């Protein structure tokens, strides 16, 4: 069945839902701005972002985490977050033969989240996530990758500028920096064909390592781009006991103290120097410590990373809302207050309990 008319209807509904928000915010993250100015102002709307991880980035919703509930959006806004990073596994909901059509039902599911978040004044990052085939066979998968982005970009061409596209989460394995740069040279023009004034978010290879920014080839004439990196150092602390990491069981009991903060400061200072040289805003797209770390260390590390990100002018996105790193209990719909305090020390939710 053709999807063009339903897409148009959804876009009109989306625009109606956010019209008041956009009208009141005409010169912040706005299409009226020049590209570099728009990237910088849109980056500011990502100041305090929460990842809706383990919800829509698997082959089936609820497979590896909670179903995405409307209450999650509302509670995030009430707590004081300014944006949602929405990891989406588009490739699992699309055909494997040309034209690689994305499920209209799944597009409608994502539309509902975007609409609700936008109506609550939250920016949204649509992040292409867990695209395993692109990591394992990037050259064979390149045509499908570009085709998926053409569809997503066309579908959201009329969304407000506070809806941003993150081109690919954590390029890794066979998708080396060289091959990732080649992929970007093809996919960015494909997105720009329908979204010439959409802010894009792009990181480097090796799991969005900060080190890979140095060899990330962003188009010099496209200034509407936010660079991103992820931070989970030191891994033996942040991923202790993580079932998906080989040898992580041996890290259990690893602690982190403020005496180690200088390393975070030095790491972020290096990213800041790169950003100033390149004239690009930077976004810390993921950071978090797995729930098997002791709470005192976990809160101290999270506080330190958040404070250093802010001190260096980076918006940030905590990984994640309501799963194994989560700041929210998805069943009780209650905040884990020490962790929330580490992220949002002036949260209205915390103030109301004092």
Average pLDDT reading: 93
Percent in helix: 40-55%
Q: What name is given to the CATH topology?
A: TIM Barrel
CATH 4th-level superfamily = Glycosidases
What structural class do helix, strand and pairing data support? alpha/beta
Give the total of domains. 1
Low-confidence stretches: 1-26
Overall spatial form: globular
Major β-sheet, in short? 8 strands, parallel, barrel
What is the helix/strand order? HHEHEHEHHEHEHEHHEHEEEHH
Return the CATH class. Answer: Alpha Beta
Measured by DSSP, the beta-strand proportion falls in 5-15%
How many distinct beta strands? Answer: 10
Question: Whole-Å distance between the termini?
Answer: 55 Å
Secondary structure tally, helices: 13
CATH architecture: Alpha-Beta Barrel
Strand order, main sheet: write it out: 1-2-3-4-5-6-7-8
CA radius of gyration is 19 Å
